[in-house]
């Protein structure tokens, strides 16, 4: 079962970081970002440290608020957040044409919520690739509980340099993960290498849209809030991602920002003006209660020192995401389906 109690939140806070080092890890993490004088090149050069610190610090907050899947979803009227999250995952399985027996790679798999859902939905074997040790430990436990541990596994490695031979997988997908790459081309090229010829890669990318104006200070502030709040070196544009895919050798079958036609905005669960009982912990009131609970747990020594600071940058993320979504300058669901061309003999 997912760890979603207040004490689980406190005990998981910091991930693999020693509890006495959480505050200094928060300080080091913050220094990577614009609001604390950090620069893009430094974030890119130190992406492994920056991203791993981020996920060690936030994973128990994510599990507390989101459950097992750490991503947004396009949503229909009348659909619950949970239903939309699952449908968003099923959509990838459908687009990739997954069939029983296929060997699939989930790039940047979190604690494996989508992996378990897609494996059960499509009767496939899914390998979850993740560079965060704490998340892999949580994922293994959850796979065992769900009963998919015989057919699905986790590999701890960097998606910029994967420990798989070329042409290993029948399909590859990535959900809101490759945005952490210091360079999209390097990451897509590696995915291209491990995919079998003639097979497909599908993803939801975090991107700045064509409405983003780099000379607009407010737009830049929103971008920086999302970067600090979500552990990102630099948010690329949809055009840059598309270009990088083609450069890596993929044929792009189709691509679209799925946020554009979503009847319910993807950022609604975090919007201050929205209230929902079923996703209460994500709402402004829910977050306010969590903030005070974390403050109390830190005060009495149950949560490590620095815990409130984590909640603070997550709050910044929520503000940036909602504003970015409202202004349509940012999307967490730039979808593409791309194919590695068949080999000469196929
Ligand atoms: C927002 S989470 C999404 C997780 C998962 N796809 C989901 O939807 O639940 C991003 C994930 O990418 C992983 N990640 C980030 N950089 C990585 C890297 N260089 N190599 C492998 N995994 C990475 C993180 O550890 C995290 O699990």
TrEMBL record:
<keyword id="KW-1207">Sterol metabolism</keyword>
<keyword id="KW-0752">Steroid biosynthesis</keyword>
<dbReference type="Pfam" id="PF08241">
    <property type="entry name" value="Methyltransf_11"/>
</dbReference>
<keyword id="KW-0756">Sterol biosynthesis</keyword>
<dbReference type="GO" id="GO:0005783">
    <property type="term" value="C:endoplasmic reticulum"/>
</dbReference>
<dbReference type="InterPro" id="IPR030384">
    <property type="entry name" value="MeTrfase_SMT"/>
</dbReference>
<keyword id="KW-0753">Steroid metabolism</keyword>
<keyword id="KW-0489">Methyltransferase</keyword>
<protein>
    <recommendedName>
        <fullName>Methyltransferase</fullName>
        <ecNumber>2.1.1.-</ecNumber>
    </recommendedName>
</protein>
<feature type="domain" description="SAM-dependent methyltransferase Erg6/SMT-type">
    <location>
        <begin position="54"/>
        <end position="341"/>
    </location>
</feature>
<keyword id="KW-0808">Transferase</keyword>
<dbReference type="GO" id="GO:0003838">
    <property type="term" value="F:sterol 24-C-methyltransferase activity"/>
</dbReference>
<dbReference type="InterPro" id="IPR013216">
    <property type="entry name" value="Methyltransf_11"/>
</dbReference>
<comment type="similarity">
    <text>Belongs to the class I-like SAM-binding methyltransferase superfamily. Erg6/SMT family.</text>
</comment>
<dbReference type="GO" id="GO:0032259">
    <property type="term" value="P:methylation"/>
</dbReference>
<dbReference type="InterPro" id="IPR013705">
    <property type="entry name" value="Sterol_MeTrfase_C"/>
</dbReference>
<keyword id="KW-0949">S-adenosyl-L-methionine</keyword>
<comment type="pathway">
    <text>Steroid biosynthesis; sterol biosynthesis.</text>
</comment>
<dbReference type="Pfam" id="PF08498">
    <property type="entry name" value="Sterol_MT_C"/>
</dbReference>
<keyword id="KW-0443">Lipid metabolism</keyword>
<dbReference type="InterPro" id="IPR029063">
    <property type="entry name" value="SAM-dependent_MTases_sf"/>
</dbReference>
<dbReference type="GO" id="GO:0016126">
    <property type="term" value="P:sterol biosynthetic process"/>
</dbReference>
<dbReference type="InterPro" id="IPR050447">
    <property type="entry name" value="Erg6_SMT_methyltransf"/>
</dbReference>
<keyword id="KW-0444">Lipid biosynthesis</keyword>
